[in-house]
């Protein structure tokens, strides 16, 4: 698969809660994830556990929009705008937005995601801001 195909698989796996497809885009043991709340994760096992927990909730939907894509021989970088809507049946509707930066490296004949950083955005309150 190409970098672009792997990126599309990774994003589709997130949107469709497909843990197996997500795992297929990961390295064997280590990666870096910096979550929107500033938590640092280094192990693939922890990354998978966190996504398994997130995927178990049926109340959210995720929209993605590719903002930037850079590809070299063995390195690919994508910046993706995210909109996540959570509408739990017994709670208030929550909409969050942010940017997801993903870095992939070519390992032998496949691309793997080794860095995932989510930066939340907040609505601007100052029009000049």
Automatic annotation (TrEMBL):
InterPro entries: NTF2-like_dom_sf, SnoaL-like. Residues 5-117 form the SnoaL-like domain. It comes from the Bacteria. This is SnoaL-like domain-containing protein. It comes from Tautonia plasticadhaerens. The lineage of its organism: Bacteria, Pseudomonadati, Planctomycetota, Planctomycetia, Isosphaerales.
